[in-house]
Amino acid sequence: MDPPEACCSPPSVEFLVAVARDLLQATFEDLNQEQLKRFRHKLRDATLDGRNIPWGRLDGLDAMDLAAQLTHFYGPEPALDVTRKTLKRADMLDVAARLKEQQLQRLGPSSSTLRSISEYKKKYRDHVLQQHAKVKERNARSVKINKRFTKLLIAREGAALPDEALGCTKELEPEPQRARRSDTHTFNRLFGRDEEGQRPLTVVLQGPAGIGKTMAAKKILYDWAAGKLYHGQVDFAFFLPCRELLERPGACSLADLVLDQCPQRKAPLKPMLARPERLLFILDGADDLPPLAPHAAPCTDPFQAADAARVLGGLLGKTLLPAARLLVTARTTAPGRLLDRLCSPQCAEVCGFSDKDKKKYFHKFFWDERLAERAYRFVKENETLFALCFVPFVCWIVCTVLRQQLELGQDLSRTSKTTTSVYLLFIISVLSSAPAADAPRMRAELRKLCRLAREGTLGHRAQFAEKDLERLELRGSKVQTLFLSKKELPGVLQTDVTYQFMDQSFQEFFSALSYLLEEERDLRALLQGESHLTLTTRFLFGLLNPDRVSDMQRHFGVAVPERVKQDVLLWMQEQGQGRRRAAPEKTAGTDAAEDAEEPEEEECEPNYPLELLYCLYETQEDAFVRQALRCLPELELERVRLSRMDLVILSYCVRCCPPGQALRLVSCGLAPAQKKKKSLMKRLHSSLGGSSSQASKRKPQPSPLRPLFEAMTDEHCGLNSLTVQQPSLQEAPQYIISILRQSVALSTLDLGDCQLPGPVVTSLCAALQHPGCRLQTLSLTSVELSKESLKELQAVKTAKPGLVIIHPALDSHPKPSKGLSDAL
To answer: Which residues lie in Acidic residues bias regions (predicted)?
Structure first.
């Protein structure tokens, strides 16, 4: 339904009178004589402010005169309200409903309705502020959201892959978009107008597990209620936790979900939903929604009861309240299936903490400033651990473990440097606080808890009933109180009690741990599972590290047999042979038709190779990684925005490359950097003309690409072939040239369609003639070169006849080797 004209500007009294008369006359003309007589009879008792029309004025009036009398006596809008109520008392409910719908179409909500909504708005905002003032930490301690929330870096879509080519000089580089810290301005910009002046109705906040998407969504809801966000644009905002709602028993409507969030489940629901353009729905964890059934009818009525998946799917697909705003949070592991269901979404990526905000988080977590500074200094000196702390949940675990170690006077060096080791150390630290006599019982309970986690992960369940805990003899156990949070929901006859892990990533960690704690292990079910098992798989790899295996044997009394590693290596070999995890199914009809014409072939997710490298990094066992990479002779990353953590993982795996390894970087770029605000003093200094002198003194920041190319010069790196195509990695050519003098294994280099200015080609030629250069084949097939650059390369070919340089404008060259053809 289009928004009425009356909503945009206040109508005149003459306009209201004319429309009210038309609506009333049309309504009365639809009544037969008996119905009209009954209506007039009931109208005698219809009072408004103690007044009613005398019977003598109503007797014998036709439809037109009756409409004029009502409008004159009560006024236009009250006359419509009195008529609707009288029709209902005369048992003409369908006529009353039709009149209400026509009134909304012509006039919008009445002034009395708007007054009631306006009064309720303040009541609802106060309710939201009270309900969401505190958030529960993973250890069930409640903290004020304003005290604990630490700003996150958020990058809007468009800051992802700049189109600049390799080799551009610094003066020609455009200013890239950068990630912004999540202050009020950044949150407001999420629904800001784009370059064409259009406001998005759907915004997706993406990011990996534990990055802070849910906390950011709750802070947005809280700030809206406090009047800081979307002022004059959003009247009501609702927080819908998708995973929790999917496990809700029975059918429900969107109206039911809205009422659940209102005080005493009372609200002027119909007028609220009648203005969907003033509503904001926050769908947290929308990637948990199952795909729509092929022939399922979409949900279109907010009062229609259906299963939660259909109701939430109707919001996502804009078949339900299409004018409403949606803020959706989702993991980035497999966004394709979700994005296909959305209408013109604006995507933004939650990038976690900046280095500055990591320090702020430590000082917010530790109440003692001295302990906060000591813990922060320790983590800052551990480079890899400090990098991991960009994920807020990992930062919380690190702080929790360090606080316990500091309070007990333990050695801080126990804290490790991978996500798996941090999680495992946290669990060991928590369990170690129990008396030694309870250790056997705690180990048995831990195995059962891991089994519960695995059942839930494989079955897409995050909430567990009391009967689930009773079946595994976990109800009232020590591990239940340590790792599960209890939630009570009002039921029909009694309160429903459910349990869930302190964080979804913890459930996935315990799921991975279950495969190593139990004697019967079906690793194939995990490794060949769906994309929602990605984090569980990563944890499994991390638990295979020799130090982690030793920790599990010492603290959990379990021995992990060597054959588990062999099973994992066999699975890696299958990935190298092309039996990769299938991409999410496409739902669009055109895509399905195109797929039907193609031969049946499993398609790999775009970021799947990088995910495999993350798994290998978690092991931190060079020999195992080198053996696993032999199963993947060619690594190809395509259209990946490489974050600093991505580059840490890629650098480690490149350093472990076996001989003959090939690496292809196709259309890859760097994730947006943080946009730093200048302090007031710096801005004043710049305005007074001091910026140029400061610029000359400022030290250049090291490129995040540097560790990657330094890894290629490591003596253990066996990388044989490197391909860079359609690049947006600005500094790659300079680093590639520097490694040519030092790399002991690189023999084939393909620079695709990189742009190589004259000075870069000169440096390249000098590197090719360096005694340490072992390159045998250089492919520049699509590179545009000047005449001077061609002459320099021709001179190199003449000086080094064993070097094959492939370019159409150069002299005839030998046919490229089979190895190069395979690499290309």
So the answer is: 592-603
Q: How far apart are CA 400 and CA 379, in angstroms?
A: 13
d(CA 650, CA 657): 10
Q: Which of 128, 141, 114 is nearest to 218 (CA)?
A: 128
pLDDT band (50, 70, 90) for residue 627: very high
Contacts from 185-188 at CB under 8 Å and sequence distance 24+? 186/154, 187/219, 187/220, 187/223, 187/229, 188/229, 188/230
Calpha distance 549→557 (Å, rounded): 10
Q: What is the DSSP letter of 773?
A: -
In the chain, the amino acid numbered 803 is L
Please, is 661 exposed, middle or buried when counting C-beta atoms within 10 Å of its C-beta (0-12, 13-18, 19+)?
A: buried
Sequence-distant (6+) residues with CB within 8 A of 367 are: none
pLDDT surpassing 60 at residue 822: no
Pairing mode, strands 641-642 and 669-670: parallel
pTM of the entire predicted model: 0.64
Output the pLDDT for position 598. 41
In contact, 783 and 740? CB cutoff 8 Å: no
DSSP β-bridge partners for residue 135:
143
Q: HSE (CB half, 13 Å, CA atoms) of 453?
A: 29
What SS3 class is residue 663?
Answer: strand
Q: Are 398 and 422 contacting, i.e. CB atoms less than 8 angstroms apart?
A: yes
pLDDT score, position 393 = 85
Which value, in Å, is the radius of gyration of the alpha carbons in the chain? 33
CA 174 vs. chain centroid, Å, equals: 28
Q: Which of 439-443, 554-558, 687-691 has the lowest mean pLDDT?
A: 687-691
Measured between alpha carbons, how far is 246 from 307 in angstroms, rounded to an integer? 8
pLDDT tens, position by position, 20-69? 899 999 999 999 988 888 888 888 877 776 677 887 778 778 888 888 98
| Burial class of residue 663, CB neighbours in 10 A (0-12, 13-18, 19+) | buried
Closest residue by Cα to residue 655 from 579, 713, 701: 713
Residue 637 phi/psi, 5° resolution? -110, 125
Q: In whole angstroms, what is the distance from residue 454 CA to residue 514 CA? A: 7
In sequence order, the β-bridge partners of residue 488 are: 497
